[in-house]
Amino acid sequence: MHPRDGGWAGFLLAQLDTSKPLLWVQERMAILESGRVHPPGLPTQNIIHVEARDARDALCAMEEGLRCAALSAVIGEIWGDPRALDFTATRRLAVASERSGVPCWLVRLGGSANLSGARMRWRIASAPSLRNDLDPKAPGAPAWDAELFRARGAPPGRWSIAYEAGAFHLVAASGDRALGEVGRLRA
C-alpha cells in the first residue's frame, strides 16, 4: 500500500453507523502528507474532527474519544513511526475500544509494521472498481485489496473485496479460506 493511497478511508467509512457522530483525529504530519478530512465527502455529516499537533496528542484524543459510547467510531491517522506509537499506546486504545464498544481504527500512513496491541492488523489498498452494468465507462462499486497480516485467533490471509448493496463481498480470493472465518472486517 502506498502511504498516499486513500482507499482505506472508503473501506472504513462503509462500516460506520451514520446515526452517531464520528471522531476523526489527524496528526499534523498526516494532514500535510495525505490531506485533511473533507466532511461533505463523508457518509455522515455528524463528524468531530481533531487536528493534533503530534502523534502523542493524537493518541490521547483517540483514547479520550473511546471513553464516549455515543460515538459511532474513532479513526486516527498517524504518519510514520513516531516514538509515542508503541505497544503500550496501541494496547490502551484496544482496551478502551473494548470497554466502550466503540470501534477504533488507527491508520498508520507511511509507517512500518511494528509491534502493536491491535486485535487485527490489516493492509488495505485501493483496487479497480467493479464493472458498472449500466455504463461500462463509469466506475462501479468500490473494491479493495485487503491483507490480514496479524490477528488473534485467525491465520493471515489476503482477499479482493468490494462493497455493494450495503455489504462487503468477496470479489476474488487469493487465500485458501473464507472471509467469514476472520470475523467482521476491522482495520
Structure report:
The chain is of the alpha/beta class and 187 residues long. The protein has helices at 7-13, 28-34, 55-65, 87-100, and strands at residues 22-27, 47-52, 73-79, 104-109, 120-127, 143-151, 157-164, 167-173. It folds into 2 domains: 1-117, Rossmann fold; 119-187, no CATH class. It is 21% helix and 30% strand. The longest helix is centred in the middle third of the chain and has 14 residues, at 87-100. Mean pLDDT is 85; it is low at 175-187.
Structure summarized in a few sentences:
It is built from four helices and eight strands; from the N terminus they run αβαβαβαβββββ. It has 187 residues and is an alpha/beta fold. The longest helix is centred in the middle third of the chain and has 14 residues.
Note the topology.
Elements: H1 7-13, E1 22-27, H2 28-34, E2 47-52, H3 55-65, E3 73-79, H4 87-100, E4 104-109, E5 120-127, E6 143-151, E7 157-164, E8 167-173
Parallel strand pairs: 1-2, 1-3, 3-4
Antiparallel strand pairs: 5-6, 6-7, 7-8
Looking at this protein, list some descriptive labels.
single chain, 187 residues, alpha/beta, Rossmann fold, 2 domains, 4-stranded parallel β-sheet, 4-stranded antiparallel β-sheet, 30% strand, disordered C terminus
Can you list the strand order of the major beta sheet?
2-1-3-4
Q: Round the mean pLDDT to the nearest integer and report it.
A: 85
Number of strands: 8
Could you state the order of secondary-structure elements as H and E? HEHEHEHEEEEE
Structural class by sheet pairing and helices:
alpha/beta
| Uncertain stretches | 175-187
CATH architecture of the largest domain: 3-Layer(aba) Sandwich
User: Measured on Cα atoms, how large is the radius of gyration?
Assistant: 16 Å
Give the total of domains: 2
Name of the CATH homologous superfamily of the largest domain:
P-loop containing nucleotide triphosphate hydrolases
CATH topology annotation of the largest domain: Rossmann fold
Figure out the total of helices. 4
Helix content: 10-25%
Distance between the termini: 14 Å
CATH class of the largest domain: Alpha Beta
